[in-house]
Every structure is written in C-alpha cells, then in structure tokens.
Amino acid sequence: MSSTARRVREVLVSRLADWYGVAPEEVTDDRPFAEYGLTSRDSVVLTALLGRATGRQLPATLLWETPTPAALIAALTAEEEEERPAADGVTARPEDGRPGPATAPGRSPAGGSTGGPPT
C-alpha cells in the first residue's frame, strides 16, 4: 500500500470512528460511504481533510464520484502510477513497463501538438 493510500485510509477510519462511531475493523474497501451514515456536509469536510492529508486540492464532489473507500483510494493514488519523466528523459509506460520518450506538455513524441497549451 502506498503512503498516500495509507494516509487516506487513516483519515477515513478516524473520521468515521469520531463522527459515527464506526469501529476501524468495520471500514471495508467495498462498503459505500452512505452505509456508514456519511452526510453531504460531512463528505465535503472529509474531502477537505483528505486534501490536506494528500497535499492536493480535491473537488467537493469527490466522495460522491468515488462512493467506496476502494474507489476513493484508487482515484487518489492513480496519479502515483501515471508516467513520470525520469532525469534521463525516459519514462516507464505503466501498461507494459517499457521505457518510452518523455514529452513536454502539449507536445506529442513525434513533435506535433496534442492540442494542449503551447510550449
């Protein structure tokens, strides 16, 4: 489990315990947040806490878009699994693990525009 996944799980478990009296062992990855009693207001507060824990600004609708702990953790850790350029200009492609060319934002490996902002 990644450090982000651990932090997210810790925040979830502690908030559900404090707010609703849910025992840590009762928080399962596949159980919808609504079944724990999570309200709209509390989901917005929890999203803000998760944003602080992960160092990211998260959309207020995040917990409705990711209705289970598993979906939430997958969404928040997906960024860790994306391609990241290495210092040598080569990235690993997650789908096959083979190296590929690193490109600047808005540019394709062939040098054409991807429709993104000009570089």
Précis, in short:
42% of the residues lie in helices and 5% in strands.
What does this protein look like?
Keywords: Phosphopantetheine, Phosphoprotein. This protein is mainly alpha-helical and 119 residues long. It is built from 4 helices and 2 strands, in the order ααααββ. Strands 1-2 form a two-stranded antiparallel sheet. A hairpin with a 6-residue loop joins strand 1 and strand 2. Helix 1 runs antiparallel to helix 2 and helix 1 runs antiparallel to helix 4. The longest helix has 18 residues. It is globular, with a radius of gyration of 18 Å.
- SSE topology string: HHHHEE
Q: What is the correct CATH architecture of the domain at 3-81?
A: Orthogonal Bundle
- Contiguous runs where pLDDT drops below 50 for at least 5 residues: 91-105
Strand order within the widest sheet? Answer: 1-2
Number of strands: 2
Highest CATH level, the class of the domain at 3-81: Mainly Alpha
Radius of gyration: 18 Å
**Superfamily at the CATH H level of the domain at 3-81?**
ACP-like
**CATH fold topology of the domain at 3-81:** Non-ribosomal Peptide Synthetase Peptidyl Carrier Protein, Chain A
Termini gap: 36 Å
The number of distinct helices, counting runs of at least 4 residues, comes to 4
| Shape annotation | globular
Residue-averaged pLDDT = 79
Helix content: 40-55%
Sheet bearing the most strands, described?
2 strands, antiparallel
Strand fraction band? 5-15%
Q: Please state the structural category.
A: mainly alpha
